[in-house]
Amino acid sequence: MLTSKQRAFLKGQAHSLKPIIQIGKNGLNNEIKTSIRNALDARELIKVTLLQNTDEMPQEVAEILEEEIGLDTVLKIGRVLILYKESSRKENRKLSKQVKAI
User: Fold this and answer.
1) How far apart are CA 61 and CA 70, in angstroms?
2) Where would I find the CRM domain in this sequence (predicted)?
């Protein structure tokens, strides 16, 4: 679990990010989950957008991803999710070092 200070820090870091994964009419399928896992391993912090043509609800998507991938939902704004997870690769753990220091 993230503390409120860590969450605030991550929100600031995510502000300039563009959503790199979009969930559309196929919903939250395994392909998208794999993309999210890979993106988090590479970046640790990503934005995911739920397109208008999806039946998925942001809250449900966040809960499923938290359970299955073990990530933290930093923030939900409308149809955008900001997701964070420490990278499993040491060389990509720049952000998580900063988060732990908070």
Assistant:
1) 13
2) 1-96
pTM of the predicted model over 0.85: yes
4-101 maps to CATH 3.40.440.10: no
pLDDT in tens, 34-83: 999 999 999 999 999 999 999 999 999 999 999 999 999 999 999 999 99
Show the 3-state SS of 28-96.
CCHHHHHHHHHHHHHHCEEEEEECCCCCCCHHHHHHHHHHHHCCEEEEEECCEEEEECCCCCHHHCHHH
